[in-house]
Specification:
There is one protein chain. The protein has about 750 residues and is α/β, with parallel strands linked by helices. Helices cover about 30% and strands about 15% of the residues. The chain is built from 21 helices and 27 strands. The strands form seven sheets. A six-stranded mixed beta sheet has the order 11-16-15-14-12-13. Strands 4-3-2-1-10 form a five-stranded parallel beta sheet. Strands 19-27-26-21-22 form a five-stranded mixed beta sheet, with no helix packed on it. Strand 1, helix 3 and strand 2 form a beta-alpha-beta unit. The protein is globular. About 0% of the residues have low confidence. Bound molecules: beta-D-glucopyranose.
Length: about 750
């Protein structure tokens, strides 16, 4: 009976969604019928406002006239209730009064800055990640924004690529879950609710695989790899109702993404039935000239609209050439209509046709501008994102009763660097963003002495400050160093060929370490860095990424034990840049090395181990988690059966703590070779001190599916390895057979 009621309820929900879709479609059609070709093309045109830019800006001083003439469908980088209202008023003076869409890169928070996405991924906490996106949407929408160019769902296996900071790391499965959580957060109760903004899954596609980790570079890969590794997060966001997608700058196997008919028309709008719209990346349509794919902007416009890019961000190719292309019969009006309809549909769904100013509410803007609850949420996920890499002899947590502590390093008194690359709406407000110095001070007893020295700058080569830093260390019971990257060293166009800790920071660490004082190194950065000497010689290391407004408080909470660290790396940390791309789910090869020291005509380096410095999924806690024996419900399964997996995990410490328990599988023989490990599930579980919990997972044959050589997504019967552990390198494993029969 319950089931029947449930399915009746689902049916009626479906019917009402369909009715609403039909209603909107009818409205869209009625507007479309009134539009001239020029007005239609105007809807496909997006201009930048007049500030922050990541590429060449349209300099035309007549943007306002163009809005009034109905030649602009959307603006980016225009924020604030007043500013957006002024432009919307211009749109209301256009013949058909079609409202503008305001878009912006709201990537990791808006006014309240959250940890960079790579850091948030280290929390493996999907609820907290969703909340972070939700809050960003609440704050941004209160400022007149309808649309964020996020989440970036590019799988990235190369830490040289500066934009790894903006995504969820190297794993497709984890990245897919995170992408969906972010879309849910941004889009909230659905478009139409004024605290929801349209999400934009970007960059479609395979941008994270740019050759050499160099931003904007080419991508050449098999379609199988594309479908298996790079497309699933996009597909999942489409299934979750993402409103828009953005092209990528790269070419994919020789065809620039902005005009890549295969990925846009065949896969996205065809196989996946995507009903939203696709915006180009900044100028990416015009950049096809430099790619050597088209001779001029006219050809660029033709190829892109035919391939399925609906909106042109700042290349002026559509506004400049589509009308002529239609007149010459090179582009069908139907292709333009399809794009216009997709964009108008979103404007209707957002409710902008009913009230174009519904996101322009001064009272709401003021209310959401300084919200304590948002700051607390930012602190919560910042703490969960921190990864404890090393903690010998239980050096951490520190005692608050310390009499004299040295705080050394170029990040100790920095507040801006906590904020990360995409954080231009935080405003220059140092009072809201404490430094590590402030946060440590607030933990210590009155009278405790902090001996501070910067020691060196982040990137400079001067060692002049070393002596002062040594002196500060000498006078102290213990030393905490805070080093890393500058806020603008990871991000768009911030690829690095050398991913060592920059400048002379590691040299400074070495010198201070010679004093033999107990020493903790904190590393704040937007990507996995290389710091081998530190890894080998410093007893306690904490990776703090860039954690946002409350970053310093989160770090202080962790190092003084008010929060027990639980973050796990979403990317492998290489031993040096020569190992990249490095990722846990690689193939075995025909000559795998049998051990770290095996160099005997095997797939290895003669000068370095294959394994990373810190593996995917790795992270310590002040608790110690012990994994018991794996228990499987069967070792011989049939196609329709479910495998139940159980493992006891014990917190062998006197501290409550949280552990992320990870399930991997390996398909031992396949019609195409399979990775040595693939993450299939995880659970983030809290344990009381001394507590044992039995953690269970279930696997079905659906979880074994992959793309075969014919691009068919299916599973293959045979032998599998089931692995469970606290990171990708240390697992308990058992083999099973999974057969076809029922
Ligand atoms: C970036 C996009 C971003 C856009 C607008 C481009 O350079 O690649 O991710 O959304 O600029 O700022």
């Amino acid at each position: 009976m319950k089931k029947l009621l449930l399915s009746l309820a689902t049916c009626s929900l479906l019917v009402s969604v369909l009715a609403q879709t039909n209603r909107i479609d009818r409205k869209v059609d009625s507007v479309l019928r009134l539009m001239t070709l020029e007005e239609k093309i105007g809807q496909l045109n997006q201009y930048n406002g007049d500030w922050e830019a990541t590429g060449p800006i349209t300099k035309a001083g007549d943007k306002q006239e163009q809005i009034i003439a109905g030649k602009v469908g959307s603006m980016l980088n225009v924020t604030g209730v007043e500013h957006t209202r002024v432009l919307q008023e211009l749109a209301m003076r256009s013949r058909l009064r079609i409202p503008l869409l305001f878009g912006q890169d709201v990537i990791h928070g808006y006014r309240t800055i959250f940890p960079i996405p790579l850091a948030e991924a280290a929390s493996w906490d999907l609820e907290a990640i969703e909340r972070s996106a939700r809050i960003a949407a609440i704050e941004a929408s209160a400022q007149g924004i309808h649309w964020t160019f996020a989440p970036m769902v590019d799988v990235a296996r190369d830490p040289r690529w500066g934009r790894v900071m903006e995504g969820a790391g190297e794993d497709t499965y984890l990245g897919t879950l995170i992408a969906v959580a972010q879309v849910k957060g941004f889009q909230g109760k659905g478009l139409g609710d004024t605290s929801s903004i349209m999400a934009c899954a970007k960059h479609f596609a395979a941008y994270g695989a740019a050759v050499g980790g160099r931003d904007y570079n080419s991508v050449d890969m098999s379609l199988r790899q594309l479908h298996e590794t790079y497309l699933p997060p996009f597909k999942a966001t489409v299934d979750a109702g993402v409103a828009t997608l953005m092209n990528s700058f790269n070419d994919i196997n020789g065809i620039p993404a902005s005009a890549n008919k295969y990925i846009l028309r065949d896969v996205l709008k065809g196989q996946w039935n995507f009903k939203g719209f696709v915006v180009s990346d900044w100028g990416s349509i015009g950049e096809m000239i430099k790619h050597g794919y088209v001779a001029n902007n006219k050809e660029a416009a033709e190829r892109s609209i035919i391939a399925g890019t609906d909106m042109d961000m700042e290349s002026r190719s559509y506004i400049g050439h589509l009308a002529n292309l239609v007149k010459q019969g090179r582009v069908k009006v139907a292709a333009i209509d399809d794009a216009v309809k997709r964009i108008l549909r979103k404007k209707f769904e957002l409710g902008l046709f009913d009230d174009p100013y519904r996101y322009s509410n001064k009272a709401r803007e003021e209310r959401e501008w300084n919200n304590e609850e948002h700051l607390n949420a930012s602190l919560d996920i910042a703490r969960k994102s921190i990864v404890l890499l090393k903690n010998e002899h239980g050096l951490l947590p520190l005692k608050k009763e310390l009499g004299a502590i040295a705080l050394i390093g170029p990040l100790v008194k920095s507040y801006k660097d906590h904020l990360g690359f995409w954080s231009y709406d935080w405003k220059d407000d140092s009072l809201r963003v404490p430094t590590l110095y402030d946060a440590v001070r607030s933990k210590l007893k009155a009278g405790a002495v902090i001996n501070y020295a910067q020691g060196c700058s982040i990137t400079g080569m001067s060692r002049e400050g070393f002596a002062e830093a040594m002196e500060a260390a000498r006078k102290s019971e213990m030393v905490v160093m805070y080093v890393g990257e500058r806020r603008d060293q990871s991000g768009e166009a911030k690829s690095r060929s050398d991913i060592q800790l920059p400048g002379v920071q590691e040299e400074l660490i070495k010198q201070i370490a010679e004093l033999g004082k107990p020493m903790v190194v904190l590393i704040g950065a937007g990507r996995p860095l290389v710091f081998n000497w530190t890894s080998q010689h410093i007893p306690a290391i904490v990776y703090t990424w860039w954690l946002g407004t409350k970053g310093a408080n989160a770090i202080a909470d962790v190092i003084f034990g008010d929060f027990n660290p639980c973050g796990k790396l979403p990317m492998s940390f290489p031993r040096n840049a020569g190992q990249v791309p490095i990722y846990y789910n690689h193939y075995n090869t025909g000559r795998p090395a049998s051990s770290d020291s095996d160099r005997n005509y095997v797939s290895a380096y003669i000068d370095l181990n294959n394994d990373p410095q810190y593996p995917f999924g790795y992270g310590l806690s002040y608790s110690k988690f012990e994994y018991g024996e794996l228990k499987l419900s069967s070792r011989n399964l049939k196609a329709n059966e479910t495998l139940s997996i159980e493992i006891p995990v014990t917190n062998k410490s006197d501290r409550n703590g949280t552990e992320v328990i990870q399930l991997y599988i390996r398909d031992l023989v396949g019609s195409v070779v399979r990775p040595v490990k693939e993450l299939k599930a995880f659970k983030r579980i809290s344990f009381n001190a001394g507590e044992t919990k039995t953690i269970s997972f279930r696997l079905r044959t659906d979880d074994l599916k992959f793309y075969n050589n014919e691009l068919k997504y299916d599973w293959e019967p045979g032998e599998f390895q089931v692995m469970v552990g606290g990171n990708s390198a240390e697992v308990r494993k058992e083999n099973i057979i999974w057969g076809r029969g029922k």
